[in-house]
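WARN no homologs supplied; continuing
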Amino acid sequence: MATTQTEVMRRVETGGRGSRHRRTFSRRQLVTAGLFLAPALILLGALVAYPVIYSGWRSLYDAAGTDFLGLGNYVTMFTDPETFTAIRNNLIWVLVVPISCTILGLIFAVLLDKIRWGTAFKLILFMPMAISMVAAGVIFRTTFQENPQLGAVNAGLVAISDAAGTSAGYPGARPRPDLGIENRAGGLELVSAPGRAAEFPLVGVKPDSLPAGAKPAVAAEPKAGAVTGTVWLDFVKGGGGTVGALGDGKRGLPGVEVQALGADGSVIGTATTADDGTFAIEGVGGGETTVRLPASNFTAGFQGVPWLGPGLVTAVIILSYIWIWAGFAMVMIASGLSALDRSLQEAARIDGASEWKVFTRVTVPMLAPVLVVVFVTLIINVLKIFDLVYVIPPPSSLPDATVIAVQMWTVSFGGGNDQGLGSALSILLLVLVIPSMIINVRRFREDRSR
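OK structure emitted
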């Protein structure tokens, strides 16, 4: 009996020491974990928690930060037309960009998985991710300049228009002064008397831009019942010649439309100048006739599309973002595609399924978790887009392309100097981003538990 009590006491003492040992070990673990986590917690507190708390507090005060406004800044924010424009543009971004990038990434990943040089093409498509957003914005702003001398896109469109023959023949051409030629809204007009040719000496045309078939200009011969004349470039390369007179190697302007006008101003006859610049309009009578060179001969013609104007600038910015991030979506989806069980796809093909059905019924459902992660990640990035929207639009178009992040910066530091209203905009942006972040966190937890 004594032995039994001794053993019991020993076990109790040993158990007590073990419990104290386990408690001591747990405390050591907590201290060690705290020491390792402290730097990260301090950084999160300083860079995340404190700015969020301070922004919420600052949004309740006026621009100077002295007078308490309560929800006044939020009322101002939701009654400001510029804020509504920013929210509308953010909505456009959310509806267009994540879907476009995800679909393009899926298409690229599936197609490049089937070709021999797929890795090289993936590298090319992913390369825009190596460019900073500011640099990409500068590239797109330069590429889509409205001036075809600067913007590559409009330069190509103007070249196509010129090749199709839709541009004016001699843009910028004008008459010599004091020669009786009237420059009116409809074009250049000159009164031609019977038996006298109508002469149009013009300047403002580069000799090098003349058509290859242009010949030296000659005086038109008068014809009964017709109006004749000559249209020529009143300039001699290298200098010389008599102003307003033919000869001295001056060349005619071929292809110019010429009209004869009646007493009421209506067009009663037309002609086109020959290679030597001469023309003849038949059947217009023998009296004085007003001859007109229509303004369509001298207008600048098609000079490109205003890509960076208020109507199209948002589309250009969205295109630049898709150009950058489609490669990211492709790489993410390709990594998920490489981990798929290909036996299911092969089984579907053996059962007679077409490639389209294999893609839509097997591949896409199996990639659904990856597609959701890519889609939600793009939503988060799109909601806080700033760089491209700030760099690409010219100042005149920025108000039409603005988003919440840019509006927040403009109100706070870009001239508004109202940190109270800017803080309210930042809280709005945070509220919009939080749901997408929660979805992503839940998705990561689900993937980890599998």
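The mean pLDDT is 84.
OK
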